Amino acid sequence: MKTEKEKMISGEKYNPANPRLVLERARANRICTRYNKKSFNEINMRSRLIRKLIHTNGNFWIKPPFYCDYGYNIFIEKNVMFNYGCVILDVCPVRIGEHTMIGPNTHIYTACHSLDPNERLLDVEFGKPVTIGKNVWIGGNCTILPGVTIGDNAVIGAGSVVTKDIPNDSIAIGNPARIKRK
């Protein structure tokens, strides 16, 4: 039998009020709070703190404030930059390729709620993973919705809401984001 955490990560329906998940969200919140309070010149301390949450294989830059649900479902490759105010709701894996730049106040969501109002009353959630390719530029104030894949070398215009997959080498803008050119 799967644990609620295993169900959550695999995208199945799960109970977010599970005590283990509540404790893990609280841990991530404590680390993010400490991270966000560090001054700019404490970059090594901030880096050590955030590495307690996310998985990475190289240099990265995350300008505070930064918020996430768990952190352990975030996988970033080398030379990834998050500008100020980014939020990642990582109930499922979020994978971000190398040399990707993410603009300020961008939100990446993997968490979903049922469209059925009766099911929402049962405190049931599920998730869908998000994948962002290599050398992607996401403008400020963007929202990336659950289940989306953004291909390598793509550009997402500022203020866009990405509701569907964006192929490699594309420029997409708007709400919902539409491909403007390749």
Automatic annotation (TrEMBL):
SMART domains linked: Mac
Spans traversing the lipid bilayer: none
Keywords: Transferase
Location of the Maltose/galactoside acetyltransferase domain: 5-59
Keyword RNA-binding tagged: no
Family indicated by similarity: Belongs to the transferase hexapeptide repeat family.
Name of the protein in question: Sugar O-acetyltransferase
Biological source species: Massilicoli timonensis
